[in-house]
Write a structure and sequence with these properties.
alpha/beta; Calcium-transporting ATPase, cytoplasmic transduction domain A; Calcium-transporting ATPase, transmembrane domain; Rossmann fold; 4 domains; nine-stranded mixed β-sheet; eight-stranded mixed β-sheet; 33 helices; 49% helix; disordered N terminus
Length: 889
C-alpha cells in the first residue's frame, strides 16, 4: 500500500484505475476481511477524536487562580493565625461565594470536536469479498468500495470511479450554496477542495444520481478531520474584559502589598503594638480589594446574556457578552449568513425581453408575475419547460423538499405563477427522460399529449446554445443566426456578472419518444438564479458602519457571486477590493496591512479563514467571525468571538462559537454589539464606584495608623461594608440601559483599559472627599459628644457607609443633568439604596449582630452627625463635577 499522507492530497488527480491499482483493490470484489484488518492497522479507523471534556476540578481551579484571591486568602490565614476567628471566617465565606458563582458560569466548555464526530455516525453500503454489505460508517477503511445514491451521506473521503448524474451538497464544507456536479474524471493536482469534482468528502451529502467510489481517506485524514484538527489547534485569546480585570486585579494587589507593608512597617518602627499593626494590615488588605468586583462583573455579564437570549442571541461563554462591544471587524460568511442559503429565480429572459423577479415576487406576494405570463406566452413556455424538465419535489414543509436546490427554485416559481408541476404533468405526462450528464451538462424529459411528443430541455447555456437550431420570438420561431446567437451570449455574460447562475431552456416536438433529445432544438430563453441576500442584512451592515465596525465577507464561493451579494447587501462599493483565497497562502508581514483592507475574500479554504482571523488579530483588531458550516469551525473558535447560525448552522459551528444567533438574523449581531457596549460602560461605571469607595477605606485606615489615631473602622466592618454598600449599588449601576446614541460612536480602542487616566483621576478625587467626610464626623463627634470608643467607631463606620451609598449619584454620565440622569431614572438604584439603608441601620439595634460588628445603637445626636457628614461629600463631588468636568464613563 501507499503512504497514508499521500492519497488524500493526490487521489483527485489520479484516474480511478490508478487509485484501484495503487491500493491493490478490485472494484468488483472490494476488500477481503484480511484486507480490511490490514488497512485499518495501517491507515487507522474512521473516527475523529473528540476534544477532552473539561473537568469540573479544572474549572474550580481556575476560580482561585487570581492575585485577588491569593491576597484575601493570605489575609484570612493571618487573621486565623492570630485567633481573629470571625474575621478569618468572614473572608473565607466571601472567597467561597465568589468561587461558587464563577464555577457555575464556566462549567460549560466548548465541545466542537465531539460535534464533528456526529457527522460520521451513519451506515454505508460497501462491496467486500465480492458482496454488497451495509457497515457502520466508522468501520469504513481506506480501500473500501462504496456504493452511493442520491440522499446518502458521505462518511469518508471517496474517489469516484463510476458516476452517473452525481451531485453533492458541500455547502457545510466549502461554503458553496449550489449542489456540485461530480465526475469520475481526474482533475488538476492543484485544484482547491471546492473544485475536486472527482471526490466526495466526509460530512457532505449526495443530492442526486448514483456512483461507486473507493475510500482514500478516513477519520483524521479526511478534509473534515483536518478541519477538526484546525479547530483543536485554534486557541481563542482571553477577552478584553478578562485581560482588563486581570490587569486591574494585579495592580490592586501590588498597590495593597506596598501600602500595607509601608503603613505596618511605619507603625512598628514608631513602637506601635505588633498585634495592632497586624490587625491594621488585615483591615488595609480587606479595604483595598473590592470583593464585590468579580461578583458584580459576573452577574452583569450573566444579565447581558439573558437580555441577548431574549433577542435571539445565545451566549455560550460569559466574557463574549462584553467582547462584542469592543469588536472592530466582523468577518462574515456568505452562504446562510448574508444569504438565505436557498436558490431563487431572479431573472427570466426571452428574446428581446427580460423580466426581473424581486424577492417579494419570488416569495409569492400579491404582485407575482402570474397575470403577466397570461399575456406573455414566451415567458409562460419558458417556465413550463423548467418545471417539466425537473426531478425535484416540493413537500408540505420546506424540510420535506427533495432534489437539487436549483430545481426546487424552478418548482417554486412554477407554483407561484400558476404552473405547478402536478398540473403540467397531468396535461403532459412524462414518458421518457435523458438524465443530466456532466459531459453534456444538459437534461431532457419527454412528454405527450396523446398524439405527439414534446421534449423539454434545460442545462448550461453554453451547451444548450450549441444544440439549438431555432429561437422562439414574439413573431414566431426563427432560425438561430449569428446575430441572435451573439445576443444570447451577451445576455448570458450580463447575468453572470450579476452573480446569477444561468440556465437555458429549449424544446422541440417529434413523432416519437426515442429521438435524440439534443438535436433540432428551439431556444425559449434563459433563467437567472441566485442564493438571495437576506432582506434584513443591508440595514444591519449600515448599523455596523455607523458604529465604526468593518464588515468583511469571507466565503468559499466564486468571486463573481461574492461580489454580487456584497453589492446587494451594501458591503463595500462597486470598486471594492476582492482577493481569492489562494492569494492568502503567501501572506506575509509586508503584505498583510494592505490585504486586510480588502472587503471580500472569495474561494477561501478553512485553513485560510483561520489564517485571516489570526492576521486581523495580530494587527490589533478585535475580530468577530460569523459562519454556519463545518468549514467555519476553526475560524469561529480562533476569533475573539465566534458567531454561529442557530437554524442553518451545523452542530460543529454552533459548538465552536461563543455566540449563536437563534434566528440566523445578521441584525441580531448589531443588537448584541450595542448590548456589549452598554455592558462595558456599566462595568467601567461600577468599577469606578467600587474603587473610589475602597480607596476611601484605605485612606481612612492608613491615615489613622500613620497619625496615631485609633482605627475609625475595623476590618470586619470594612468587609461588611464591601458586601453591602458595594455590591447592591454597584449591581444597580450595572443594570443601566446605556446612552441612546451609543451605536453612533466607534468601538473603543482594543488596548484601552477598563479604567484610564480620566477615571483614575475621578476615583482619587472622590475618595479623598469621602475620606474627609469620615474624619470630619470623627472630629465633630469628639468635639460635640465626647463619645466612648464604641460610639466613635459606630459614627465613623456609618458615616463612611452612608457616604458611599450616596456616592452612587456621582456616577452619572458626563453629559447628564444633575437631577435627571441615567442614575436617578434607574429604579434599581433606588431599590438598592432602600435595601442598604436597612442593612446599615438595623444591625446596630440587633445585639448579636452589633457585637460581631463592634458597634452600638446610635442616638439622635449621633445620627445627626452621621447623616450630615455623609451628605457633605455628595454635595462637594457634585460641585466639583460642575467646576472641573463631569465624571467620564
Amino acid at each position: 500500500m501507499t503512504d497514508r499522507a499521500a492519497l488524500p492530497e493526490n487521489a483527485h488527480k489520479l484516474s480511478g484505475a490508478d487509485v484501484l491499482e495503487t491500493l491493490s483493490v478490485s472494484a468488483s470484489e472490494g476488500l477481503s476481511d484480511h484486507g480490511v484488518r490490514e488497512s485499518r492497522a495501517r491507515y487507522g479507523g474512521n473516527t475523529i477524536e473528540a476534544r477532552k471534556k473539561v473537568q469540573p476540578f479544572v474549572v474550580l481551579l481556575h476560580q482561585v487562580k487570581s492575585p485577588v484571591v491569593y491576597l484575601l486568602g493570605a489575609a484570612a490565614v493571618l487573621a486565623l493565625y492570630f485567633r481573629e476567628w470571625t474575621q478569618g471566617a468572614a473572608i473565607l465565606v466571601v472567597l467561597a461565594l465568589n468561587s461558587a458563582i464563577g464555577f457555575g458560569t464556566e462549567i460549560k466548555a466548548a465541545r466542537s470536536i465531539e460535534a464533528l464526530r456526529t457527522l460520521g455516525t451513519r451506515s454505508a453500503r460497501v462491496r467486500r469479498n465480492g458482496k454488497v454489505v451495509v457497515v457502520p460508517a466508522e468501520d469504513l477503511v481506506v480501500g473500501d468500495i462504496v456504493l452511493l445514491e442520491g440522499g446518502d451521506g458521505v462518511s469518508a473521503d471517496i474517489r469516484l470511479i463510476e458516476a452517473s448524474n452525481v451531485g453533492a451538497d458541500e455547502s457545510a464544507l466549502t461554503g458553496e450554496s449550489v449542489a456540485v456536479d461530480k465526475s469520475h474524471e481526474p482533475v488538476a493536482s492543484d485544484a482547491p477542495v471546492a473544485d475536486r469534482a472527482s471526490m466526495l468528502f466526509k460530512g457532505t451529502f449526495v443530492t442526486r444520481g448514483s456512483g461507486t467510489g473507493i475510500v482514500v481517506a478516513v477519520g483524521p485524514g479526511t478534509q473534515l478531520g483536518r478541519i477538526s484538527q484546525l479547530a483543536e489547534e485554534a486557541q481563542p485569546d482571553d477577552s478584553p474584559l478578562e485581560k482588563g480585570l486581570a490587569k486591574l486585579s494585579g495592580q490592586l494587589v501590588w498597590a495593597t502589598l506596598i501600602l500595607t507593608a509601608l503603613i505596618a512597617g511605619t507603625g512598628i518602627l514608631k513602637g506601635e503594638d505588633v498585634l495592632l499593626m497586624v490587625d491594621s494590615a488585615i483591615a488595609l488588605a480587606v479595604a483595598a480589594i473590592p470583593e464585590g468586583l468579580p461578583v458584580v462583573a459576573t452577574l452583569t455579564l450573566a444579565r447581558g446574556m439573558w437580555r441577548m437570549a431574549r433577542q435571539n442571541a445565545l451566549i455560550e461563554r460569559l466574557p463574549a457578552v462584553e467582547v462584542l462591544g469592543a469588536t472592530t471587524v466582523i468577518l462574515t460568511d456568505k452562504t446562510g449568513t448574508l444569504t438565505e442559503n436557498r436558490m431563487a429565480v431572479r431573472h427570466l429572459w426571452v428574446p428581446d425581453e427580460g423580466m426581473e423577479l424581486t424577492p417579494a415576487e419570488d416569495d409569492g406576494a400579491p404582485d407575482t408575475p402570474e397575470q403577466d405570463l397570461e399575456n406573455r406566452p414566451l415567458f409562460g413556455q419558458l417556465v413550463e419547460v423548467a418545471v417539466l424538465c425537473n426531478n425535484a419535489a416540493l413537500g408540505e414543509e420546506e424540510t420535506d423538499h427533495s432534489g437539487d436546490p436549483m430545481e426546487q427554485a424552478l418548482l417554486r416559481l412554477g407554483e407561484r405563477t400558476g404552473l405547478a408541476q402536478r398540473t403540467l404533468l397531468a396535461l403532459h405526462p412524462r414518458v421518457g427522460e435523458t438524465a443530466f450528464d456532466a459531459s453534456t451538462k444538459m437534461m431532457a424529459t419527454v412528454h405527450t399529449d396523446g398524439t405527439r411528443f414534446f421534449y423539454a430541455v434545460k442545462g448550461a447555456p453554453e451547451m444548450v446554445l450549441r444544440r439549438v437550431a431555432f429561437i422562439a420570438t414574439a413573431d414566431g420561431v426563427s432560425v438561430m443566426d449569428d446575430a441572435r446567437r451573439a445576443e444570447c451570449i451577451n445576455r448570458i455574460e450580463t447575468l453572470g456578472l450579476q452573480g446569477l447562475r444561468v440556465l437555458a431552456c429549449a424544446t422541440k416536438t417529434a413523432e416519437t419518444a426515442d429521438e435524440n433529445p439534443y438535436t433540432g432544438l428551439t431556444l425559449l430563453g434563459l433563467i437567472g438564479l441566485e442564493d438571495p441576500a437576506r432582506a434584513d442584512v443591508p440595514e444591519a451592515i449600515r448599523g455596523c458602519r455607523e458604529a465604526g465596525i468593518r464588515v468583511v465577507m469571507v466565503t468559499g464561493d466564486h468571486a463573481v457571486t461574492a461580489r454580487s451579494i456584497a453589492r446587494n447587501v451594501g458591503l463595500g462599493s462597486e470598486a471594492s477590493r476582492m482577493v481569492d483565497g489562494p492569494k492568502l497562502s503567501g501572506m506575509d508581514g509586508s503584505k498583510t496591512g494592505k490585504l486586510l483592507e480588502t472587503d471580500i475574500f472569495s474561494r477561501v479554504t478553512p485553513s485560510e479563514k483561520l489564517a485571516l482571523v489570526q492576521a486581523y488579530q495580530n494587527s490589533g483588531e478585535i475580530v468577530a467571525m460569523t459562519g454556519d458550516g463545518v468549514n467555519d469551525a476553526p475560524a469561529l473558535r480562533q476569533a475573539d468571538i465566534g458567531i454561529a447560525m442557530g437554524q442553518r448552522g451545523t452542530d460543529v459551528a454552533r459548538q465552536a462559537a461563543a455566540m449563536i444567533l437563534l434566528d440566523d438574523a445578521f441584525p441580531t449581531i448589531v443588537k448584541a454589539v450595542r448590548e456589549g457596549r452598554i455592558i462595558f460602560g456599566n462595568i467601567r461605571r461600577f468599577a469606578a464606584y467600587l474603587l473610589s469607595c475602597n480607596l476611601s477605606e484605605v485612606l481612612v485606615v492608613g491615615i489613622a495608623v500613620l497619625s496615631g489615631l485609633p482605627l475609625p473602622i475595623l476590618s470586619l466592618q470594612i468587609l461588611y461594608l464591601n458586601l453591602v454598600t458595594d455590591v447592591f449599588p454597584a449591581f444597580a449601576l450595572a443594570l443601566g440601559e446605556g446612552e441612546k446614541d451609543i451605536m453612533k460612536h466607534p468601538p473603543r480602542p482594543p488596548k484601552e483599559p477598563i479604567l484610564g487616566l480620566v477615571q483614575w483621576s475621578a476615583i482619587i478625587a472622590q475618595s479623598l472627599v469621602l475620606t474627609a467626610g469620615t474624619f470630619g464626623a470623627l472630629f465633630a463627634a469628639e468635639l460635640w459628644l465626647a463619645p466612648d470608643p464604641g460610639e466613635l467607631v459606630t459614627i465613623t463606620f456609618l458615616t463612611l457607609a452612608f457616604s458611599q451609598l450616596w456616592h452612587v449619584f456621582n456616577m452619572r454620565h458626563r453629559r447628564s443633568g444633575m437631577f435627571r440622569n441615567e442614575v436617578t431614572r434607574n429604579a434599581w438604584v433606588w431599590s438598592a439604596i432602600v435595601l442598604c439603608i436597612l442593612l446599615l441601620a438595623v444591625p446596630a439595634y440587633i445585639p448579636m449582630v452589633a457585637d460581631i460588628l463592634q458597634i452600638v445603637p446610635p442616638d439622635r445626636d449621633m445620627w445627626l452627625i452621621i447623616l450630615g457628614m455623609s451628605v457633605g461629600p455628595l454635595a462637594i463631588n457634585q460641585i466639583g463635577a460642575l467646576m472641573f468636568g463631569r465624571f467620564r464613563s
